[in-house]
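Ligand-bound model needed. nicotinamide-adenine-dinucleotide.
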Amino acid sequence: MNTLRWGIIGGGLMGHEFASALGRWFALGDAAVRVEALLVAVCDLNPAALKWFERVPTVTQLTSDADELLANPDVDAVYIALPHNLHREFYLKALRAGKDLLAEKPFGIDLGAATQVRDEAAKLGRFVRCSSEMPYFPGAQRVWTVLSSNLDSLGRILEIRAGFHHCSDLDEHKPANWKRQNATCGEAGAMNDLGMHVAHLPLRLGWKPSRVYAQLQKGVSERPDGRGGTVQCDTWDNALLHCDVLINGENVPMRWEFKRMAPTETNTWFLEVVGTRGGVEFSTKFPKTLRVFQIKNGEQSWNSIDLGHKSAFETVTGGNFEFGFPDSILQMLAAFASERAGTLGDRLGMVSPDEAVASHQIWSAALRSHAGKRAIEVA
Ligand SMILES: NC(=O)c1ccc[n+]([C@@H]2O[C@H](COP(=O)([O-])OP(=O)(O)OC[C@H]3O[C@@H](n4cnc5c(N)ncnc54)[C@H](O)[C@@H]3O)[C@@H](O)[C@H]2O)c1
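Prediction:
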C-alpha cells in the first residue's frame, strides 16, 4: 500500500481539524482509499499552536520555519491553512519545494494570486486541490448523484439556491481576527471565507454563472482587538449573489448566499434545486434529512428521507449512525489521497485549481456589480 506523508503549515483551527481527521484514517475501509496517510511534520509561528501537535505520535518535526518543513524529504504533501494574505507565497513555496498541495480556500487572496498558483502547479506538474468538505455529507452526496447523473428527472430546472450561513459574528463584542480585515481576508470578504464551499458542486456541474448581480453588506465596523483596544473591520460580512446560469440551453436563476451574520445558524451549508418534475434539497442544519420534491398521481409533495452514515468512502461507522463535520473532513482527505493515487473512480473529487480560479472570477464580478449597482458578465 502507498503511504502519503503529510506536513501542515498553519496549525490553528483548521490545522487541528486536519490532524484529528488523519488520526481516524484507519476508520476508512481498506478498499475505499488504498493509501495509508499520516502526519509527520507541522509548522506554526505560535509555540502554543505547535505544542498541541505533540499529542500526535507520528509527528517527528515541529518547527516555526516553513522552509525547514518543506526541505523535509519525509513530507510528500502539505496542507496549508494560513490567513489568506499568505496563501500565494506559501503555496508557491510548497510547489517549488516539490510537494503536492492541499490548499485552503479561497486559494489565494484574489484572482491574481489564484491564477499564479494554478499556473505554477500546472507548470511543475504537482497534484493540487482546494478544501471544500461540506459536499461530502451523505445528503449532499445524494443531491450530487441526482444532479450529476439524473438531472433530466427533475424536468426543466426552475431555480437553484445554495449557501453557507454562520451566526457567530452577530456578537459585536467578539474580538476581531484576521478574517475581519480586507488586508488579510481579502476584498471579497465573506465570499473568500465561505464561497468555495458553495461554488464547488455548481462549478463541477458546469454551472458557472454567466452574469451576477451582487448585494454585499457589512455588519459590525469596529470590534475589540482582544488587547483592550478596538479595530476597524472593513470586510463584507454577508453577500447575496443573484446569478444567471445556462442549463440545457435555458437561463436559470441561481442564488448564492454567503452570510457571517445569519441569526441562529452555526455552520449551515445548503443546496436546493427545483425543476418542473422534481427537486432535491439538503441542508446541514438537518444533517440526516434529504428532501425530495415529487409529483405523483397529480399530487405534489416534499418528502423527507432519513439518511444514515453511508459515505462516498466507506468507513467502520454503522450505516444507521449520524454523520458530522469531522467525518466530512475525513471524507475530503480520502478524496485527495485517492485522486492523487488514481483510485477516485466516479466519486466526487475536491475543488480543482481551475475551479478555484473560476470562483475568484465570480467574486471579482460580484465586487464590481455591487460597486456599480448593476449586473456584471463573469469572465
Ligand atoms: N475548510 C473549512 O471549513 C475552513 C474553516 C475555517 C477556515 N478555513 C481556512 O483555513 C485557513 C486558515 O484558517 P484558520 O481558521 O485555521 O486560521 P487560524 O487563524 O486559526 O490559524 C492560522 C494559523 O497560522 C499560523 N501562522 C500565521 N502565519 C504563519 C506563518 N508565516 N508561518 C507559519 N504559521 C503561521 C497562526 O499562528 C495560526 O496558528 C484559511 O484559508 C481559512 O479560510 C477553512
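Residues 9-14, 43-46, 49, 66, 81-84, 86, 104-105, 131, 133, 193 surround nicotinamide-adenine-dinucleotide (CB under 6 Å).
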